[in-house]
Write a structure and sequence with these properties.
With about 160 residues, this protein is α+β, with helices and mostly antiparallel strands. The protein has four helices and five strands, in the order αβββββααα.
Length: about 160
């Protein structure tokens, strides 16, 4: 039995819509990750040092900053609050240009910065498998996203 042209058109429309959703999820995850990750990936020429967390509020944690040889001394810096930041912690950071905000560096900071992309990969895997019916690609995206989330959990 032959499929009518309207059935083919609907199938192509569904594929196009699912592809757009996958693209939107991945771009949003990468964009959200890059807002933090670019401070770590492109850290050459930025101020580096070590932060010692002295207190945490609802949204941010504050602490003292011990600069490296090329960085200026600061009285206090702030970092976004997360489950990985607690009072008394010390970790390497890079200062966001033109502010007193810092971003955690090193492997834990790098993985934490890319966390939104890991979640986006997991969500996109569902659409890739269900909407696009590309099961191997869906499994690849899901495994990559889950590996990134797991590595971040272990590193922090």
């Amino acid at each position: 039995m032959k499929r009518s042209s309207s059935h083919r058109l609907l199938a192509h429309g569904r594929t196009f819509a699912a592809g757009c959703i996958v693209l939107l999820l991945l771009v949003a995850g990468a964009w959200s990750s890059w807002n933090t990750a670019h401070h770590i990936v492109l850290a050459k020429g930025r101020e580096h040092g070590t932060m010692a967390v002295t207190g945490c509020g609802e949204d941010v944690c504050t602490g003292s900053f011990a600069p490296d040889a090329q960085s200026q001394d600061r009285t206090a810096v702030t970092i976004q609050r997360s489950v990985a930041v607690k009072k008394g912690d010390r970790f390497p950071v890079v200062v966001k240009p033109g502010s007193g905000d810092v971003v955690r560096t090193g492997t834990p900071g790098f993985l934490h910065a890319w966390l939104p992309l890991g979640g986006a990969l997991l969500l996109a895997a569902l659409v890739i498998g269900g909407g696009l019916r590309l099961t191997r690609t869906a499994w690849g995206a899901a495994i990559t996203g889950a590996a990134l989330l797991t590595a971040t959990f272990i590193a922090l």
